Amino acid sequence: MLLRLSNEPRDYAWGSSTLIAELEGREPTGAPEAEVWFGDHPGDPADVDGGSTLDTVTGGSLPYLLKLLAAADPLSIQVHPTIEQARDGWAREAHLAADDPQRNYRDDNHKPELIVALSDRFEALGGLRPVEDTLRLVAALGSSAGPDALRERLTAADDPLGSTIAWLLSGSAQTEVDDIIDAVDAASSAEFAAELEAVRAIAARNPGDPGVVVALLMNLIVLRRGEGIFLRAGLLHAYVSGLGVEIMAASDNVLRGGLTPKHIDVPELLSVLDTTPGIVPVLRPSADGAVTAYPVDVDDFALRRVEITGDAVELDVTGPTMVLVTGGEVTVAGSDGDAVDVPVGQAVFASADKTVLVLAGTGEAFVAEPGATRR
User: Fold this and answer.
1) Residue 147 CB contacts under 8 Å (≥ 6 apart), including other chains
2) Residue spans of alpha helices (H) in 145-258
3) pLDDT digit string (tens) for 274-321?
4) H-run or E-run covering 293
C-alpha cells in the first residue's frame, strides 16, 4: 500500500518561523516551526491521509524516524548514546516517570543521525577540534583570567577535552566562562574568523551559557544544499541554523551539554561523550545521475536523494519505505500501478511488499528505508 503522510510542525523555541513555510509555499504562521516528524515514533506519529496515524499501520515497528528540521537559533549541544549505553541508562531510570524532567533516557535505543541540507547554507557544530588547533584559536582571545584558565585546561596531560568540558559545565567556572565570552566578542583572527563569528552569534542568543565556550571547542561545519553529515553515537554536535532533511534511528535519547534550559547531567554526558578530536566528513551529492546515496555505518536507516527532471526514476526498495518530497511536483507509484501525488513537505509511506517505486514528475525527493541488515 501507499499512504500519504503529513504532520504538524513542532514549535520548539529554536525553530524557524519561515523556512518550512517557504519550502511548502505557504504563508508563515508567525510561530516557530522546528521539526516535522514522518514516522511512527510514539512522541508524534505521522498523520495518514484520510485519518489515523502511521503507528496504527506499522505497530510502531519502523527502525527510523524521518524529519524536516528548520533552525533559526542553535539547538542544544548534545550527544547520543550507543545502544548498549541506552539500554543500561533506560534500565537505571526505570523508576522515573516517562515525563520526569530529570530523565536522561526516553527509550532503550541508540540515536545515530544523518542530516542533509535543503537550504543554501546550513551551519552545524560537530565533533571536537584537535587541541593544537583550538589552542591557536584561544591565543586570539588574548591573556586574561578566562582564556588563561582555558589554555591551562587544554594543555593538561590526561583527556584535556573531557576535563575541560567537565570544568566548564561544573558550575564552578562561571567567572571564567563570562571572561572567555567577553574575550571572544573582542577577538579577531584571520584563521578562525568564521568560528569566532559563529560563537559570537551563539553567545548573543545564550548569554552567560557555559555551552558557548564548549562550542568554541567544536568544529564549525557549513553545508551547502545537498551536502550532509553523519553523527554517530558519542559525537558532540549542535545544529546552528538552516533547513534540512534529518533521518535517525527511532529514538529520543539526548544528553545535553549546553545552550539549553533543559536538564544537563554532566557525569552522564561525560560517560557517553567520545572526546577523541577529529573532523566530521561532509557527504557530498553525486556529480552525475539522478540518485545520490548517503552511506552510513548503521543498520537502522538508509537515505537517498533523487532528482526527477522529466524522466521517471525507478528505484528498487526493500522494507517499509518513505518518500519525502522537497521540491517540484512528484508522483510516487508502485509497480502494480497505484500512485500518489505528494505535495512538497509531505511524504508517502510504502509498505514492505512494495519492492519497486517509480518517481515521476519534476522535482526532488528523499527516499528513506531500513539499513541493509534491517531489510
Assistant:
1) 138, 141, 179, 180, 183
2) 145-154, 160-168, 174-186, 193-205, 211-216
3) 999 999 999 998 766 799 999 999 999 999 999 999 899 999 999 999
4) strand 291-293
Q: Which CATH architecture has domain 8-125+223-283?
A: Sandwich (2.60)
Q: What whole-number distance in Å separates Cα of residue 28 and Cα of residue 127?
A: 34
Bridge-based pairing of strands 64-71 and 35-38 is antiparallel
- The reply, when asked if residue 78 is annotated as ligand binding, is yes
Would you tell me the crossing angle of helices 174-186 and 193-205 to the nearest 10 degrees?
Answer: 130
Cβ burial of 318 (10 Å; 0-12, 13-18, 19+) is: middle
291-374: CATH homologous superfamily?
Jelly Rolls (2.60.120.10)
* Residue 263 annotated as part of some ligand binding site: no
CA angle 62, 66, 72 (to 5 degrees): 150
Place of cell 536523494: 305
* The residue count for the chain: 375
The H or E element that residue 88 is part of is helix 83-92
pLDDT along the chain (375 residues), means of 10: 96 96 96 97 93 95 97 96 96 94 92 97 98 98 97 92 96 97 97 98 96 98 97 97 97 93 93 96 83 93 95 94 97 90 97 94 97 65
Q: Is 307 assigned a ligand-binding role in the annotation?
A: no
> CA–CA separation, 252 vs 98, rounded Å?
12
Domain with CATH 2.60.120.10 in the chain: 8-125+223-283, 291-374
- How far apart are the C-alpha atoms of 221 and 42, rounded to whole Å? 32
How is residue 48 written as a grid cell? Answer: 495518514
- Residue 319, CA atoms < 13 Å, CB-side half-sphere: 18
Residue of 4, 106, 232, 256 marked active site: 256
Counting residues of the chain whose pLDDT is more than 90, the rounded percentage is 92
Nearest to 216 by CA among 270, 255, 259, 253: 259
Q: What totals of helices (H) and strands (E) does the chain contain, helices first?
A: 10, 19
Task: Encode 42-76 in three state secondary structure.
Answer: CCCCCEECCCCEHHHHHCCCCCEEEEEEEECCCCC
Active site residue 256: yes
